[in-house]
Design brief:
The protein is of the alpha+beta class and 202 residues long. It is built from seven helices and seven strands. The radius of gyration is 16 Å and the shape is globular.
């Protein structure tokens, strides 16, 4: 379920708005390719304009795509759909229509995995809000079909693979440290993308 146009009062919205203003939070998502469902945390729900309840229960992939800005949707989601079909990783920078009625710019990093038969069965990733660090409007996307993964992308892949299992462990201190590392990886990816775009200008 998508939210309204940002009007009305939602207790979770104020909390997430504060997190975004502090640039101190990232969102995490997962895809069950067999069920065609995307699940995510409250930050993902906020950024893509859905309620936390619907993001927790699962949103059909095509419906979830509705959170991507209409002008970016075809280019970005076409490439991500290719990864969802063939497997592999992607990095995408584009606009979203968030739950507060604002247009925000995000950096998304994700990977789709195959089972032992070669069928893509799941995907997972993170999203970082980079609205304040980038004023461009053209969507950008790179996939594993385009180039080999760099060290930072590989490190993020390995960590995302183990993060879900760690969430199931009853080790709150370890999980807190893992959250901190995941946050820093997200920020590092964002900084790396900004540097890569700026390099040709200098």
């Amino acid at each position: 379920m998508r939210t309204s146009d940002g009007t009305g009062v939602d207790p979770w919205r104020d909390k997430l708005q504060a997190a975004l203003e502090d640039a101190d939070a990232i969102g995490r998502w997962q895809v069950d390719a067999r069920e065609n469902l995307v699940t995510g945390d409250a930050m993902i729900a906020f950024l893509f304009g859905f309620t936390p309840k619907s993001a927790d229960e699962g949103i059909p992939f095509e419906t979830f795509n509705g959170g991507v800005h209409p002008e970016d949707r075809a280019q970005v989601m076409g490439q991500i759909w290719r990864c969802a079909t063939d497997g592999g990783w992607f990095i995408a920078e584009h606009r979203v229509c968030s739950a507060d009625g604002q247009t925000r710019r995000i950096l998304a990093r994700g990977k789709f995995d195959k089972d032992n038969t070669g069928t893509v069965v799941s995907g997972r990733g993170i999203v970082v809000d980079i609205t304040r660090s980038e004023e461009g409007h053209s969507p950008l996307i790179k996939t594993s079909k385009d180039q080999l993964a760099m060290p930072l992308e590989r490190a993020t892949d390995f960590f995302l693979a183990g993060f879900r299992s760690l969430q199931e462990a009853d080790e709150p201190k370890a999980l807190a440290l893992a959250e901190t590392l995941l946050l820093e990886l997200g920020r590092s990816l964002a900084r790396a993308e900004v540097r890569a775009r700026s390099a040709p200008l200098h």
